[in-house]
Amino acid sequence: MTQPRPEVLQKLTPVLTKRWLSPDAWQIGVYERLDGYLALRKALDVHPDDLIQLVKDSGLRGRGGAGFPTGLKWGFIPQGDGKPHYLVINADEGEPGTCKDLPLMTYDPHSLVEGAIIASYAIRANRAFIYIRGEAVHAARRLRHAVDEAYKAGYLGKNILGSGFDLDLVVHSGAGAYICGEETALLDSLEGFRGQPRLRPPFPAIAGLYASPTVVNNVGTIASVPYVILGGADWWKSMGTEKSAGPMIYSLSGRVVNPGQYECGLGITLRELIELAGGMQPGHNLKFWTPGGSSTPMLTAEHIDTPMDFEGVAAAGSILGTTAMQIFSDQDCPVYNTWRWLEFYHHESCGKCTPCREGNYWMVRTYRRILTGHGTLADLDTLQDTADNIFGRSFCGLGDGAATPVVSTLKWFRDDYLGYIEGRTAPRLSEKTLVGAH
Amino acid sequence: MTDVAKKADTVTLTIDGIEVTAQKGELVIRVAERMGVAIPRFCDHPLLAPAGACRQCLVEVEGQRKPVASCTQTVAEGMVVKTQLSSPVAAKAQAGVMELLLINHPLDCPTCDKGGECPLQNQAMSTGRADSRFVEPKREYEKPIHISSQVLLDRERCILCQRCTRFSEEIAGDKFIDLMDRSSGEQINVYRDDFFGGEGTGDGQVGEGEGDVPFNSYFSGNTIQICPVGALTSDQYRFRARPFDLVSTPTTCEHCAGGCSLRADHRRGKVLRRLAGDDPAVNEEWNCDKGRWGFRYTTASDRIMTPLVRDAVTGQLREASWSEALLAAAEGLKAAQERGVGVLPGGRLTVEDAYAYAKFARIVLGTNDVDFRARPIRATASPVTTTEEADFLAAAVAGITDVTYEAVENASSVLIVGLEPEEEAAILFLRLRKGHLKKKLKVTAVSPYLSRGFEKLGAALVAAVPGDEARLLNTDPAVAGALSAPGSILIVGERLATVPGGLSAAAALAERTGARLVWVPRRAGDRGALDTGCLPNLLPGGRPVTDESARAELSLAWGTEPGALPGTPGRDIDQIVAAAADGTLGALLVGGVDPADLADPVLAEQALDAVPFLVSLEMRQSAVTRRADVVLPIAPAVEKAGTYLNWEGRLRSFDAVLPSTAMTDGRVLEAIAALLDVTLGTGDVSAIRRELGALPAAAARPAAPATAPVETAQLGEHEAVLATWNQAIDLGSLQDGDEALAGTARPSVARIGKALAESLGVIDGDLITVSTDRGGVTLPAAITDLPPAVVWVPTNSPGSTVRRNLGVTAGAVVRLQAGVPGPILAEGAAL
């Protein structure tokens, strides 16, 4: 393991992660001692419209993957419409490789609660929901505890801190479906229906939860809000790049010495992040990696100096996504990895639309066949064509995400496929995987 | 429409290079279709909300990064759309989706019922590849599963377009069929215990696990019709025919007063299936399961094919020639004329046949003793001299056609009394639901309880003890409030006749509030019989028999002697039955009437036994034919042309579906008349239609009745007021012959309120016995939010034939008792 150089270490900007190493920061007393709920007091003295403006000015963009400007999204909520408004926080973190929200909710849950109160106040919602991934029991427990503490301390409930503002915050555990991270499927699931994406328009800002104006934001987005309030827009913009302002939690996994979360200003490069993570594991050379989870087009060693902000990654032909960087080396097989991901997407496809439901079924089986040594050259064309028939044809982004690693690996690593087909590479799967149709 | 308004409502776009103007909000797929560009599709259905699920209809829209689903994309000004005809991207996207749809489809077209009329098959030909690249194993499921007794599901054929689940949720409101599981294992199914970890039988069949919930809907057949593949089939039709061997004939449903347009598919003289016809003004594209599957009664083994006469020597019915039987009927009727002949045509006739009865009674028999109403027409306790309903029908219904399905859908508010739409007028129910969901129609029900049907209409309930409806209509502020908005409609069902003062109160309420009033009977022929004069007080066209000028007008049209038409109102059905039972009446001429449907079946059968001469015009053996002196077989609806007048007063004409030698009632009556030297002129439907069309419009109509309500009865201990109506699928004889259909009936239960249940010491599912001096019915209790001393049982369902077993109708006082009746009650039962 190599120590990062000081100039690279300086790039760490712990903002959202700053309390994670403080013992018991998940308890309200500790949180309050560490500047907790100061931003809320400040925010409640300000007119909600000014808060929205502040968030707009800060350049805060959604941390869930799409990077939509947060202040703009809040501004879409029609005010004075006589309807209830809702804030829904997407904590259904399920993208393979992504692990930024769950540690945040585990180690610093109050920052999310505080952000939720401020955001609700800004959009004039009296009820907010945190939809948390069902498997994340530990994080949900911490979060529920934090919500209870906030109620007891008067940060939630009626007339918060004497401001006249009321808010109820509900922590709702999902039932284990990746699709429920898609915001409209999340809303359906929250309403008690089968989690499948809704037709848009109408968009959630007009008819979201219970057909009322709703803001759906990622955990990281909402947890950023108290810092924006306390530090101000200019301070926030002092981190990151011009169009991608602020700090970002990068989740590094795979062939690095110290996998984990590294919070840096947007625009850092993978080279620097690997250095922060102690370098590549001994004997491993970077071969390919995902910039933001498995749904984002793969990048290779040649992209190691790409600035990791929304624009930089887009210029390299991929998407920043959830900044979940899965790092693979020359000892990893891109074909095998793609199959693993596809099994995930196949399992998680909600079934609503044909391309995703049937296309994944087909591709998974083709991969199983290739990896058992039964692939043919024609399979590569069929895979490419099937991926093309899914990408941009499915109802929501899940299908696009599934097709992405197929297209990427066929583009960068065709020879690895040919290895299995031509018998140069030993089969990775046993024949048993070919039995059965489900 | 002014030019300005028109401009604001339309947009101009380009599809495949052709400029086209469309309504704002219209879907691209519809506009393309209108201009002749057929975009393939599966999940899209014009009467369902857009889903965008199957992705088959992808097109290219300029400026959009990805192909868009034309079934969800609304038009916009200046939009440039390229379909598969002009865009390689769209063509490739569609071909790709089609290939994906087919990878897991069994391609068992040669043995699939849908083969030959299958959208998947057709569009696979137009959009698919010749050969599949798919070499992996296909998904398999056990096949088929019964999701109800009638509907079968082959899941491996399903392409998961969700038309069935969307129909059930959006249109019928019966969400008993839904998507389950996910990914490639996603499937349509019903709630099955074993599927969700319950005990079930594990053999995949629904209804065998204790907690299973079948596809419980009166509209389930529509899902089969709109299924774009062969995944949903019916027990009745499965494996019985190939579509290309069938001849399709449009027709009209003979079951209820809805007047649905149907398509009957037949082969070699036999109807194999019926489908909902497409009539936007009436049934849109839907129908109910009774109309779809209730047609096998015409091929029942007890169908009468030749005339029968009672042999003077043996006293038994024997087959006879038409000439012998007609002569016997003519002579018998003539001989009885002096003492009087009652005519009971029943409520199932076409307009043409009903007219024949009305005319036959007047000019052959010289009587007004004719009544189509084969049901209770007054409260059990009311004296048979009351004529409230007949007066109401004359004043407020006959000849009036101003309330339509469309009017109901677009009304601001409706008040429903004496009618349970889902059970008694299924398509009206669907239209009410559409109005409720899409146009904010407010529904208020005056009924003993908020049924599942009323819940689906979002109805407000004005809880009524049966018999008390008249008082509520007169005085309840919620009732008047429900009709206070302009454009309100008051819908009264035929059952309101059993409430003293009910119809009077309804007419007065409509008058008072300005609401339009419409009367909804239960049978297909009721309204036609009313308008053609099958009532003791009305001549054809709603002319009062007491109106001399009306009689003179009719005499002229019919070519009878002036003054030949009887001028005093005749006897109604109860009075005719009573007169026959006490031996006053000389003969009865009975059409499609089942004594079990009458207020007192036992008395009706006594009347049939007692009357000296009985002529029956029937299709199948019945309680009437068995007692008749002459039985003349007549044609079922499927074998004749005719017209039904539905509850709207809309003419629903149809031609014969099947060629047949069977004669209509009108032709038989004409033949009898001819033997009595009267030219009836009812042997040919076109002749009757001409004659009816030539009748001058009726003059002034009489005033509505003003019968006062009566006080509701005092109840003793363990007594309750009876509420009852027919369930849509019950023991009705037109539903005979299809066990799978009967299996979809709702179970017979006795509904009682919580307090009553407690006082009887019963809980849900315990047996209770409802009895009168006549007898009793024993059914499982269903605790329902009913007024304190009311019990509801189905009128004519298995285990609950109210009229025969109890001898009373709604509003009567009955006794309640927990458990099965002891020997004393069983002895008293007139079974």
Short description:
The complex is a heterodimer of chains A (438) and B (831). With 438 residues, chain A is an alpha/beta fold. Chain A has helices at 6-9, 28-33, 38-44, 48-58, 70-75, 101-107, 109-123, 137-152, 183-190, 204-207, 219-237, 270-276, 310-315, 334-348, 354-371, 377-390, 397-412, 414-421; strands at 86-91, 127-132, 168-173, 214-218, 247-254, 260-265, 286-290, 299-300, 324-329.
What does this structure look like?
- The complex is a heterodimer of chains A (438) and B (831).
- Chain A has 438 residues and is an alpha/beta fold.
- Among the domains of chain A are: 35-237, Rossmann fold, CATH 3.40.50; 334-434, de novo design (two linked rop proteins).
- Chain A is 43% helix and 11% strand.
- Chain A has a five-stranded mixed β-sheet with strand order 6-5-9-7-8, with helices on one face.
- The two termini of chain A are 44 Å apart.
- Chain B is of the alpha/beta class and 831 residues long.
- Chain B folds into five domains: 3-103, Ubiquitin-like (UB roll); 135-274, Alpha-Beta Plaits; 308-375 and 527-694, 3-Layer(aba) Sandwich (Rossmann fold), CATH 3.40.50.740; 388-521, Dimethylsulfoxide Reductase, domain 2 (3-Layer(aba) Sandwich), CATH 3.40.228.10; 719-828, Beta Barrel (Barwin-like endoglucanases), CATH 2.40.40.
- The N and C termini of chain B lie far apart (67 Å).
- The A-B interface holds A 177, 179, 194, 196, 199, 346-355, 357-362, 365-366, 369, 378, 382, 385-386, 388-389, 392-395, 436-438 and B 50-56, 58, 65-67, 72, 92-93, 96-97, 99-101, 103-104, 133-134, 136-140, 159-160, 178-179, 181-186.
- Chain A: Residues 335-380 form the NADH-ubiquinone oxidoreductase 51kDa subunit iron-sulphur binding domain.
- Chain A: Keywords: 4Fe-4S, Flavoprotein, FMN, Iron, Iron-sulfur, Metal-binding, NAD, Quinone, Translocase.
- Chain A: InterPro entries: ComplexI_51kDa_subunit, NADH-UbQ_OxRdtase_51kDa_CS, NADH-UbQ_OxRdtase_suF, Nuo51_FMN-bd, Nuo51_FMN-bd_sf, Nuop51_4Fe4S-bd, Nuop51_4Fe4S-bd_sf, SLBB_dom.
- Chain A: This is NADH-quinone oxidoreductase subunit F.
